[in-house]
Design a protein that fits this description.
Layout: H1 4-12, E1 14-16, E2 19-20, H2 25-34, H3 63-69, E3 73-79, E4 98-102, E5 113-115, H4 117-122, E6 129-131, E7 134-135, E8 138-139, H5 147-161, E9 168-173, H6 185-188, H7 197-222, E10 231-234, H8 259-262, E11 266-269, E12 278-280, E13 284-285, H9 289-296, H10 311-316, E14 324-330, E15 337-342, E16 345-350, E17 399-403, H11 419-433
Parallel strand pairs: 1-12, 2-13, 3-4, 3-9
Antiparallel strand pairs: 1-11, 4-7, 5-6, 7-8, 10-11, 14-15, 15-16, 16-17
């Protein structure tokens, strides 16, 4: 892929080689914003859908709220996906001074619409489909500009107008890349020698994201803010082989409890790093960014958070204070499953597929299509099997045990050979499960149907 801006920032900064998110976007964003594992916020079940009458609970003080108390201006550009059914859940009421983006889990890049999963499964493109692009609380009246161009323009504008004497936190929540594969033609043409259309567009989306990162960093330099900026890049889950992505040689895809679902790319760059130009192999979780950024901003992180201040590890290559990662704990059937890593050992219990039956059977190793190969054969993307039969989930007592130091690609299940280690990790999972907030999973609320509100997703219905 052609990513000169990201390549330069990563190689001249610090690359995170053992950085983990949750396997899907909503849990990861809940963890990043709250500093807690998603299973302690009730947001661990699947993806927050358009008809879902809940959001990240209001009793959590989110990262931008804490940074505001430390004198920061706070801005969100791009994806939210932490609740919109009532105004209290919206970004402006969760600590952001400004919001320019979309409320839900994805966006059509040109029509700025999205569709609830019930509509997607109906194969009716108009069912439960609504417009979703906002400037604070007002609609953005644009229906043909690629959304990423709009997000780029707003980010650059915010930097240009910012008073450099005041610290700024910008959460640029890029919509690139995602399963709605759309990109301006000039970016797709960069990969015209690829026969596989999905991979061609996916690569183009990544290159477009790289250009936007270059625009943002150049504006920070023009404004005289770059030397005092910490730039952090991270993904909210693994790639999807169904839509041009690949996590190879890691096993699985986004939405699975295998490494391909949660071990994500990440790097940081900033002049305040004491050590630069290296790869950090310390264990790190998405929740760690909350206390790390608060501490760097001069605040005192909450010691009860799951997140851990990682600044010494990041800036000095000190040992990670972490020895444990919880991938997820979800007790809602039929996706009841959990996974934990302690040291080099990892245990998966139950259903490894968080989005069953919408997506299932993504437990293999998926190479990306090459320039010559036109097709890749991913698992199905539908709620039923290829002949209409219901695909049964894994049995709830299925266990996987891996030693990630010796077997980072999870090819050798040691659960039968290492019964003692299995019991040890199951006991540790049970300890965490005792602190779990039951997952939100109410039925869809048709009061949100945009057909009732002139084809626009609206708040104020829950």
């Amino acid at each position: 892929m052609l990513t000169p801006n990201m390549d330069r920032l990563a190689t001249e900064g610090v690359i995170f080689n053992q950085s983990y998110a949750h396997p899907t976007c909503t849990p990861t964003r809940a963890s990043f914003m709250s500093g807690y594992y998603a299973f302690k916020t009730g947001m661990q079940h699947g993806v927050l859908q358009q008809l879902s009458p809940y959001g990240l609970p209001l009793n959590f003080t989110l990262l931008p709220q804490t940074l505001k108390t430390l004198g920061y201006s706070t801005h969100l550009v791009g994806k939210w996906n932490l609740g919109m059914c009532k105004e209290e859940y919206l970004p402006l009421n969760r600590g952001f001074d400004s919001f320019y983006g979309f409320w839900h889990n994805y966006i059509g890049y040109y029509n700025h619409k999205n569709q609830d999963i019930q509509g997607l499964l109906s194969n009716d493109p108009d069912k439960l489909t609504g417009y979703d692009l906002w400037d604070n609380t007002g609609m953005v009246l644009d229906n043909d500009t690629h959304a990423s161009h709009l997000f780029n323009n707003r980010a650059v504008e915010l930097i240009e107008k910012h008073n450099a004497d005041t610290p700024m936190f910008m959460y640029y929540s890029s919509a690139l890349p995602h399963f709605h594969l759309e990109v301006p033609e000039k970016y797709e043409k960069l990969y015209s020698n690829h026969k596989n259309r999905d991979r061609r567009v996916y690569n183009g989306m990544v290159s477009m994201m790289d250009d936007i990162i270059g625009n943002i960093t150049n504006k920070l330099k023009e404004k005289g803010m770059w030397e005092n900026t910490l730039f952090v890049f991270m993904s909210d889950d693994g790639g999807s082989p169904l839509h041009g992505g690949s996590n190879y040689p890691l096993r699985g895809s986004k939405s699975t409890l295998f490494e391909g679902g949660s071990r994500v790319v990440g790097f940081a760059y900033g002049d305040m790093l004491n050590k630069k130009g290296y790869t950090n192999n310390g264990l790190m979780h998405i929740s760690d960014w909350y206390p790390t950024l608060v501490s760097l901003a001069g605040g005192q992180p909450d010691p009860d958070m799951d997140g851990v201040d990682m600044w010494n590890m990041i800036s000095q290559d000190a040992p990670s204070p972490r020895t444990e990662i919880i991938y997820n704990i979800d007790d809602v059937m039929p996706v009841k499953g959990a996974a934990i890593r302690v040291g080099d050992w990892k245990l998966i219990e139950g259903n490894h597929q968080m989005l069953y039956p919408i997506i299932y059977n993504q437990d293999s190793w998926y190479k990306p299509p090459t320039k010559e190969n036109q097709t890749v054969v991913p698992p199905p993307f539908r709620p039923f099997g290829p002949k209409g039969q219901v695909m049964l989930p894994p049995k709830p007592d299925v266990l996987y045990l891996f030693n990630l130091k010796d077997d980072p690609t999870e090819r050798r299940n040691l659960a039968l050979k290492e019964a003692g280690k299995v019991q040890e990790l199951l006991h540790r999972l049970d300890n965490h499960r005792s602190e779990m907030m039951p997952a939100f999973h109410p039925p869809p609320n048709m009061a949100a149907d945009p057909a009732r509100t002139n084809g626009v997703w609206r708040t104020g219905w829950c």
